[in-house]
Amino acid sequence: MVLFFTGTGNSRYIAERIAEALGDEFLSMNDRIKAGEPSPVASDERLVIVTPTYAWRIPRIVRDWLVKTSFPNAKQAWFVMTCGSEIGNAAGYNQALCREKQLTYMGTAQIVMPENYIAMFNAPQAEEARQIVAKAEPDIDRVISAIAANQAFPQPRSNLYDRFMSGPVNPIFYSFFVKANAFAASDACTGCGQCARLCPTNNITIQNGKPVWGGDCTHCMACICRCGAEAIEYGKKSLGKPRYHFEAL
């Protein structure tokens, strides 16, 4: 089974590619997390977990859901992590999670995809994004080949910088940066409610025809990047920046 979590579609695309090539089912962790659904997941022995990289690890809400959820038939787990540049020492934490879940750890693969974290960085324009995706395709093929052959992924880089970013920097980043208070909707907002429907933490409500953000944001960027009216800003940090989501390509 291929499990995926996504904010703007990168991980979903890769999960679909893997599932189609392997003839596996695929399941949206977004839907399960949004529904607060931790009931056991019937799978085969193989789990492929496709997620974005948040602060040099898998997203906290993904880890929390995986810890709570039972996979009674699963025995092995591969991790495929999308990122704008690097995953740090995420592999070390994924391996520890597998020990906790009593799964055989089959490695972590890094796949660079178009950046979406416009609360801090710039997303690419559409043509540049297409080029980044094209460059990632051979890496996706290598991931598929390894899983199909029941082989572990090669060990990713893990130097002092990687361990520092995934170690002490990760909780600091969450504490100081992962907040929703800078999100706001402009007068261009149509009140369609898509942002609330997409939010995996149910952190957005529509009040008086406009979205209001609560205190349980994971910074997936789904609301701001998938707003059809481009009516959402993240303070001044997103002003003038292109929005990105995979389906727009």
Question: Which key features would you list for this structure?
Answer:
249 residues, alpha/beta, Rossmann fold, Alpha-Beta Plaits, 2 domains, 5-stranded parallel sheet, two-stranded antiparallel ribbon, 8 helices, globular
Describe this structure in words.
With 249 residues, the protein is α/β, with parallel strands linked by helices. It has two domains: 2-173, Rossmann fold (3-Layer(aba) Sandwich), CATH 3.40.50.360; 178-248, Alpha-Beta Plaits (2-Layer Sandwich), CATH 3.30.70. Helices cover 36% and strands 18% of the residues. The chain is built from eight helices and nine strands. A five-stranded parallel β-sheet has the order 2-1-3-4-5, with helices on both faces. Strands 6-9 form a two-stranded antiparallel ribbon. The chain has a two-stranded antiparallel sheet with strand order 7-8. A hairpin with a 2-residue loop joins strand 7 (204-207) and strand 8. Helix 1 packs parallel to helix 5. It is globular. The model has no long low-confidence stretch (mean pLDDT 97).
Task: Describe the structure concisely for a colleague.
Helices cover 36% and strands 18% of the residues. With 249 residues, the protein is of the alpha/beta class.
Counting H and I runs of at least 4 residues, what is the number of helices? Answer: 8
Q: CATH topology of the largest domain, what is it called?
A: Rossmann fold
Biggest sheet record: 5 strands, parallel
Bin the helical content. 25-40%
What percentage of amino acids are in beta strands? 15-25%
> Helix-strand pattern, N to C?
EHEHEHEHEHHEHEEHE
CATH architecture assignment name of the largest domain:
3-Layer(aba) Sandwich
| Total DSSP E strands | 9
Specify Rg, calculated over alpha carbons: 18 Å
The CATH H-level superfamily of the largest domain is Flavodoxin domain
CATH secondary-structure class of the largest domain: Alpha Beta
Low-confidence runs of at least 5 consecutive residues = none
Could you tell me how far the N terminus lies from the C terminus, measured between alpha carbons in angstroms? 26 Å
> Which outline best applies?
globular
Helix-strand category: alpha/beta
Q: What is the residue-mean pLDDT, rounded to a whole number?
A: 97
User: How many domains make up the coordinates?
Assistant: 2
Strand order of the largest sheet: 2-1-3-4-5
